[in-house]
Design brief:
two-stranded antiparallel sheet; mainly alpha; CF(0); globular; chloroplast; 2 strands; transport; 243 residues; proton-transporting ATP synthase activity, rotational mechanism; ATP_synth_F0_asu_AS; single chain
């Protein structure tokens, strides 16, 4: 169990290519990840403000329709994965996770970050960095532990010896492999997609990369959906009643 925790935190040291570091005290931080993350936050906040500044009871067009579509989509996802009794309190969390990953992935697929020069390294989608995906996975783990403990108290830990006590090691190991799976799945898919596009653009810069980029947009959205769905499933598993 301890080795799984160490592996998860050690994975934050994995780097692909060069990075632009900010030195804060004794810590080195990937500055390019924070810059693009703030850009993603700004997009989400701007669209939310513009869409909800003047709400209409029945919107006919515009951004309010878009935000209401995403809200209903996340509500349906949460209800399906968590259940009608507990899903409403988790809609903001799942919505935030989904939107951040979705906009981050699309920013990497649509915006030519490489044309912006920085002292070292290059800009890319935040989800192209293992630190970001590990942080999202750890937040998800904290969320489903909190969900289970807040609903069941210490009785939550009975799940580790259910349906039999000899399954305790396996059930404990499962909780530590979940964030590993979440973080490396997202990181690997986004990194691979951006590397494929970069190679094709270098080899055949005009026509071939276009369908690959369109496919990248689709798979980027799917990765955001998969992460949010699994997060909801883990929370739903934590709060469900075992009989």
């Amino acid at each position: 169990m301890l080795s799984e925790v160490n592996l998860l935190f050690d994975s934050a040291e994995v780097s692909v290519g060069q990075h632009y570091y900010w030195e804060i005290g004794s810590y080195s931080i990937h500055g390019q990840v924070l810059m693009v993350s703030w850009f993603v936050f700004a997009i989400i906040a701007s669209i939310s403000f513009l869409a909800n500044n003047q709400l209409k009871p029945i919107p006919e067009e515009g951004l309010q329709n878009l935000t209401e579509f995403f809200t209903e989509f996340i509500r349906d996802l949460a209800k399906t994965q968590i259940g009608e009794e507990d899903y409403e309190k988790w809609v903001p969390f799942l919505g935030t996770i989904f939107l951040f990953i979705f906009v981050s992935n699309w920013s990497g697929a649509l915006i030519p970050w490489h044309v912006i020069e920085i002292p070292n390294g290059e800009l890319a989608a935040p989800t192209n960095d293992i630190n970001t995906t590990v942080a999202l996975a750890l937040l998800t783990s904290i969320a489903y532990f909190y969900a289970g403990l807040s609903k069941k108290g210490l009785g939550y830990f009975k799940r580790y010896i259910s349906p039999a006590a000899f399954l305790l090691p396996i059930n404990v190991l499962e909780d530590f492999t979940k964030p590993l799976s979440l973080s490396f799945r997202l990181f690997g898919n986004i990194l691979a997609d951006e590397l494929v596009v970069a190679v094709l653009v270098a080899l055949v810069p005009l026509i071939v990369p276009i369908p690959i980029m369109l496919l990248g947009l689709f798979t980027s959205g799917i990765q955001a959906l998969v992460f949010a769905t699994l997060a909801g499933a883990y929370i739903g598993e934590a709060v469900e009643d075992h009989h």
